[in-house]
């Protein structure tokens, strides 16, 4: 059995995030909490920002920053079902979640 990762890709930059009102932020956090509670048992890892990122190229190594966050689920279909309703998808136009298998 493989590992299945849900990788969150954020379309917003810092300026977009700063434009969220306190009410919008609170509504998102409430929606996220409801989502997390509904399927908490189906996730192998409840997720975390992916930090300390390094990009390796022929020219060398450099630090980089992006908005990707990762979660781990037990099956591909289960991960797709869980993340299809995630509030991240409605927060900013262009946000997406890639569900991939690690072999």
Automatic annotation (TrEMBL):
Highest taxon of the lineage: Bacteria
Q: What is this protein called?
A: YCII-related domain-containing protein
Organism of origin: Cryptosporangium arvum DSM 44712
